[in-house]
Structures are given as C-alpha cells and as structure tokens.
C-alpha cells in the first residue's frame, strides 16, 4: 500500500481508465461509455489499492495544488502577482472569463477526482478482497468525492446555482443539471464525508508512505470546513462546525499544536520536512523530490539568485506585513524583508531581491532551500518539487474554526484563539470578537491554501478590502540588503462586486461540454 508517486500511480490511472476515462464529451469528459478491459481489472486487492492511489494523482499536478488554485488565493490583499502575466492579472482584477490558462483546468480536474471516486464506489463493493482493505479504499473514495466537491463549491457555487452532482448512481447519464442552490451540494458533501469518517482509520494507524492517505480526522476537518461555507446561507450550521471540530480533537489521534514554549521556532517548524506528519498534521499535499507541489519554488526568488530555478510569483504586501501584531513570531516565520538573515543552500545570506514587487518574500516554505539542492529539492529546476508537504488542513484551523463558530453563536471563543496566540508568543485575549478572529486567521494562514480570499468573501469584507490599493517597499538598490526604500503602490484598487465576484467563472469549455449556464455576471 504505497501512496508515494511511483509506477503504481500510472497503473492506477490505467486501471481507472478501464471504467472512467473513455468518456462522453457531454460532461467534461467524465461519463463512462464502457470498456473492453474491465474483465481483467477490479479483481485483486492490488487492483483496489492501485485505484485508490489514483485518487491522489492531482497532488503532482501544477494546475491544482502546485500553483493553479493559488491564483485564486492570490486575489486576496495578502499578496500580489510577482511577474507580468495577463491571465493571472485578469483573475486578480476580477475580469477573468475562466478561459485563462492559469485557471481553466481545475474545474474539470476536480470532476476527474469525482469520477475516479465514483468508479471505485461502484466497483469495489463486489470485489472479493480483504474486508479491511475494501473498507479503507471505499472510505478514501467517499472522502475524495466530498473533498473535490468542497473545492468546487467554494470556488464556483452559490445560492443561485450549485454544481452538477455526479455519483455512482447517475454517472452513466449523458446530461447533468446545475442544482438550484449550492446547499444541495453541501448535503451531498456532508453525506460523503460522514461515510468516509465511518470507514477510514485514524491517521496514526498509517505508517511509512501510507501516512498521506485520507483519514478519519481529515474527513471531520472537511466536514467542519464545509459547514463554515454552508453557514453563509444557514446560521444554524455554526453548531455543526463546532461539533465536527470537536470530533477531530476527540478522535483519539492526539491532534495538537506544535508548541514547546519556544515561539521563535514553534510556528516556523510546522513547515519543516521533519514535521510533515506532526501532531498538527491533518491533511496535506504529499510531495517529494520528484513529484508533488512546486509551491515552495513558485514563491522563491525568480531564478533563485542563479542557484536554483525559483519562479518568483506571489509576493507579500505591506498590508500583510503590517497586519501582524507586535511580538508575533509568525511574522518572521512567514515573511522575509530586506536585510533579514536566512540560510540558502548551507550559507547565511542577507535577504535582498531584484524580483520582488513589494520588497518581501514568503518564507513559510523555505526550509528545503536551506540545505544542498540534492538533499530535499528536485534536481530538475524546471519541475522544482521538494520533500516538504504543503498543508491543506492543520490543527490550528480546527481551533480557529471552532472559535469562530462559538463567537458566531454568541458564545465565548477564547480557548482556541488563545492556544494559537500562545504558540505565536502573544498574550491571551479576553472576550474575543469576530474582529480578533479575522486577524488571527490572517496571521496564521498567510500564503496557505486555507485561502484568505475565500475568508474575505464569506465574511462580506472583500469589497472594502479590495477597494484599497496594495502597497510595498521600493528599494533604491535591489541588490543591497541595507538599501533604503519608499512605500509605493504595487497594485491599484480593484472593483469587487459581491453580487458577482463571490464565485469564479466556470471555464467555457466545461460549460460547453456540460451544457450548463455560467455563474451570473461572469
């Protein structure tokens, strides 16, 4: 049972092509039309495991969690695009059509995950294999179907139209309608993730290369995240958010923050390779030197000072820098500014940049660059993966989601917020408000797939935030760490219409394939 990206992934994908990828063009190439090779697949435990491995293939897809979905995160006030790029600028300026190469693949790829899960759910129950393996593989399929729909709904669905619901029961159909509301999707997601939670083991039962698989805590975490989105339309869902967060805390897996009472190191260490599967881990993009997320190098200095192929995208804004409280250890762990000392390939350096639009660089994922390239980085700089997993959900999110749920219900949410603040070296808050909660999420999750843009949208804060220009520091000498600077506008104010831009446009080719309507206003 091997989750590592290797020859088995290719076999898994071949196996899924048996039942899921000879497809009609009527719905994003997803509807099976039958095959000639089903007869020699779906027979053995190895077949089932290979198929389950294929559910994670998108971890190594640049258009997904490499940097694809980060174009949406990049719409927030925390960062700006680091290089001239018309497609990404259109996304950030809310003028995109969905056809841009930066964002025109994710919608269909999430539905590929859905259909792979559907195929497993339809085929595996009839297999004569070990009951434990069957249960876990089916649990992974239900999890991944709910997981894929969570992201689809967060980005593309609202109260005016949900996303086509495709399950093992209707996946042979040739036409699918958009539900009247995304709430219908939330009902399906909740059912899938609850089923997954019942079937999946605790993450602490996994060892070795299986550790990155879907697990019980991950199912509970995405149930909480789904209900956070659902609460935009039904305030009673805040109680469910708190309940699912408690299920993570009380699952028996021992989830807790990394907190050794060393604020200068503890938060930074969450993003160390040796802590890929720490007590704070819940679910991440599994990566290694040959396969996985390229995000750390995407955030690294363009051309990497001539030492490695950094891509130089996504620079922190001065607004993010100034948002951290005095004494917050997360600031130095998250952002490099001119003259900061850091280690690059074994040597101490003072930070400077001729690439950064803002005078800053994200530091959060830089540990793989501290040691010689061969130790943790892909020697192929054109595909710069590393051994560092990229968190999608970690325990701090569980604590802050519960605190938000408590505050939104008129309860005291201090406990979770103060655990997070204590780790950052900050004093406790008494009577935390939603304003405190919003600041805490911004400081904790900057440059993560937890997605501040989505937070701003659901809070109703995006329009006001984006009506302000983004600023940075322009240094007089970009190759001098001690250079003086002036504060400049690096991205002008943007027009965010909350009646339109709270969702993203569905790519035109997917609209055409599915014969469904675009999100209103786009």
Automatic annotation (TrEMBL):
InterPro entries from the UniProt entry: SusD-like_N, SusD_RagB_dom, TPR-like_helical_dom_sf
Q: Which residues form the RagB/SusD domain?
A: 319-522
Chief site of localization: membrane
* UniProt domain SusD-like N-terminal: residue ranges: 99-225
Query: Which CDD domains did the record assign?
Result: SusD
**Key word Signal present in the record?**
yes
Q: Which UniProt keywords apply?
A: Cell outer membrane, Membrane, Signal
- Signal peptide start and end residues: 1-22
Q: Where in the cell is it found?
A: Cell outer membrane
Q: Does the keyword Signal apply?
A: yes
Q: Which family does it belong to?
A: Belongs to the SusD family.
Protein's name in the database: RagB/SusD family nutrient uptake outer membrane protein
Organism expressing this protein natively? Sphingobacterium oryzagri
């Amino acid at each position: 049972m091997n989750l590592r990206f290797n020859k088995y992934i290719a076999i898994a994908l071949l196996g899924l092509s048996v039942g899921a990828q000879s497809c009609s063009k009527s719905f994003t190439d997803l509807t099976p039309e039958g095959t000639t090779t089903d007869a020699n697949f779906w027979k053995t435990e190895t077949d089932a495991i290979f198929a389950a491995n294929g559910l994670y293939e998108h971890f190594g897809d640049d258009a997904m969690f490499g940097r694809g979905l980060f174009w949406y995160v990049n719409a927030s006030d925390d960062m700006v695009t680091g290089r001239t790029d018309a497609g990404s600028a259109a996304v950030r300026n809310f003028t995109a059509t969905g056809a841009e190469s930066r964002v025109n693949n994710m919608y269909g790829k999430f539905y590929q995950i859905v259909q792979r899960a559907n195929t497993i759910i339809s085929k595996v129950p009839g297999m004569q294999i070990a009951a434990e393996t069957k249960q876990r593989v089916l649990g992974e399929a239900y999890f991944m179907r709910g997981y894929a729909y969570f992201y689809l709904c967060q980005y593309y669905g609202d109260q005016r139209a949900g996303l086509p619901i495709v399950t093992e029961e209707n996946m042979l159909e040739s036409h699918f309608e958009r539900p009247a509301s995304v709430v219908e999707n939330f009902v399906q997601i909740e059912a899938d993730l609850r089923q997954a939670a019942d079937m999946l083991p605790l993450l602490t039962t996994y060892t070795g290369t299986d550790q990155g698989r879907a697990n019980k805590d991950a199912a509970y975490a995405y149930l909480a995240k789904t209900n956070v989105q659902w609460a935009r339309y039904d305030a009673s869902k805040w109680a469910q958010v708190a309940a699912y967060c408690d299920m993570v805390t009380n699952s028996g897996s021992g989830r807790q923050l990394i907190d050794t009472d060393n604020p200068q190191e503890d938060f930074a260490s969450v993003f160390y390779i040796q802590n890929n599967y720490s007590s704070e881990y819940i679910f991440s993009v599994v990566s290694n030197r040959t396969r996985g997320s390229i995000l750390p190098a995407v955030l690294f200095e363009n051309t990497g000072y001539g030492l490695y192929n950094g891509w130089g995208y996504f620079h922190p804004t001065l607004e993010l820098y100034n948002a951290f409280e005095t004494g917050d250890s997360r600031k130095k762990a998250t952002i490099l500014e001119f003259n900061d000392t850091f280690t690059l390939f074994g040597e101490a350096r003072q930070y400077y940049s001729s690439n950064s639009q803002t005078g800053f660089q994200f530091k959060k994922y830089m540990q793989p660059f501290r040691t010689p390239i061969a130790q943790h980085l892909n020697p192929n700089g054109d595909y710069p993966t590393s051994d560092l997993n990229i968190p999608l959900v970690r325990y701090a999110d569980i604590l802050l989601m519960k605190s938000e749920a408590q505050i939104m219900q008129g309860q005291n949410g201090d406990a979770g917020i103060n655990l997070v603040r204590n780790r950052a070296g900050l004093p406790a808050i008494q009577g935390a408000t939603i304003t405190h909660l919003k600041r805490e999420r911004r400081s904790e999750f900057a440059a993560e797939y937890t997605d501040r843009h989505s937070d701003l949208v659901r809070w109703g804060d995006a329009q006001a935030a984006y009506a302000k220009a983004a600023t940075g520091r322009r240094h007089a000498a970009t190759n001098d760490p001690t250079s003086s600077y002036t504060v400049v506008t690096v991205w002008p104010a943007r027009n965010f219409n909350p009646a339109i831009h709270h969702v993203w446009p569905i790519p035109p080719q997917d609209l055409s394939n599915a014969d469904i309507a675009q999100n209103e206003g786009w």
